[in-house]
């Protein structure tokens, strides 16, 4: 499956614009992390791009979230390592590989970064720095949906949180306009 095919599938199954933005943000972080680790950027990017394909369908039944996507992708012959990472990201399987841990920890991090950018006076990811996001990270009541423990799982990649945030920010800046966070 290439990126175009993935986007076509996403357009069929995902209707909320914010969810598509979330998937694009996760893709961007995954690509940046893959580059950092010398891993396959296309593969990591695809896992990020399509990881919430079934979200709208399973939102009332979280026990199926990720697994439905796994079924669809298996039928399309997608790389089993991508499928495993997607099934592991909501906790159905234990993350094992770097790809798994990256998707697991990136998922809530994009939400934290988007919320941080939205409260930054510039609303511009290019002007939001790691320190700003780290201060928001430490505010327990800020963007409470962004699970801090899950973000901290970046340690499984051998990364300190601030280095992990820096990489995610770098990735997301490349798609800032698509995310509506390119400043006003
Ligand atoms: Fe997600």
UniProtKB/TrEMBL annotation:
Example GO molecular function: hydrolase activity
Residues covered by the HD domain: 20-95
Entry keywords, A to Z: Hydrolase
Domain of life: Bacteria
Keyword flag Hydrolase: yes
Span of the signal peptide: none
Classification via Gene3D superfamilies: Hypothetical protein af1432
UniProt cross-references to PANTHER family, sorted A to Z: METAL DEPENDENT PHOSPHOHYDROLASE, METAL-DEPENDENT PHOSPHOHYDROLASE
The keyword Hydrolase is assigned to this record: yes
Pfam families reported for this sequence: HD
Protein name from the UniProt record: Phosphohydrolase
